[in-house]
Give the backbone structure.
Amino acid sequence: MSGRPRGRLAGLLVMAVLLSLLSINMVWVLRNCEELKPVGSGRVAPAIDLPALGGGREGLADHRGKVVLISFWATWCGPCIKEMPMLARLRRANARRGFEVLAINVEGDPQKVRQVQASHEAARQLTMLLDPDGEAARRYGVRGLPYLVLVDRDGKVAQLLIGGGGEERLEAAVERALKGEASPPDHGHPSR
Amino acid sequence: MKLPRFVGRVGGMLVEPRTTLSSVLTGGPGGLLDLALLLLLQVVAVHLPRLAGSVWFMVEVSYSAGISSVLNTVAQSVLYPIGAVFVGTIVASLVARQSASRAIGPRSEAGPPPRARSRGERNVDLVALAAVPAVCLDLILTLVSAATGWHPGPSAALAALLAGASWFIVLLVVAILLVRGRKEAEE
């Protein structure tokens, strides 16, 4: 019963646990404001250095001076796989102008990625990186897939496209970034 | 809902679950709202960084993606407890085999007389309270993990989940036995 001392004491202990967790997390939030800050246009793109599917490591630093489209994806994400042919086309069309696509698998399981590559030609044409610890996804504040980040030649985020931007929109964004034009103030997101 | 009583019922489910369930069975306050409040507090306390990040994202980048992220965080957190209450209520209703729509007797605590609870409402309340200790166990393990920096592997996480599920099942059985006992006494 609620009025009994033992029950109330145990309840107070549970509240103390809740309060402790809240305190720990509040301190973390106050100390790590920068990490929580969303990656938006104009901000310096967080560094990436991840294991590549083909071996070795690769990151943004390897493509300095290029326009880079980072595509966070997962093998269970249908829209992510569906947009791979579009990303591969964009890459082929603009590779000579200094454009690269980095497809980052957020599960980080090479076996699963190879299975997708086996059944999807486009997946074999993209540079596949693995993010097993979710470090890159955390740095980029990935909230839902597909999650595309366009980085300009200066290493700054040019545009963020969440949930798939659509081919025309993405092409336009890439074109603007290749020409060094500023991205629109709405981050190019369909919801705004 | 009065907070001290809520605290007492949550603690009561840990140390004297039979008495706490009996209190609700005889028309006392508590049940689903206790679990809902506990889950709300858990989401805020445990997932504060994710929630803060989502709100910031919502304000600065995209309302829909931010809201979706908040909802995703909440859904992930309450999925197991709500699923357990749903399944548990069905099981309790089937096993207890109560007569239809019988109103529950007088309240055991002082205060204004409560609105009569239907059989279904009472079953949901009892099962929801049975899920409280599993949520508390999850909270304690989360605190241990946060305080020590220890990240449980898949096997440890599974063991914790099974421990919580077992605790819930035991309390569900206790609740069903109480309901059946009360029915027999009434008959």
Confidence is low (pLDDT under 50) at residues 99-108 of chain B. Chain B has seven helices and no strands.
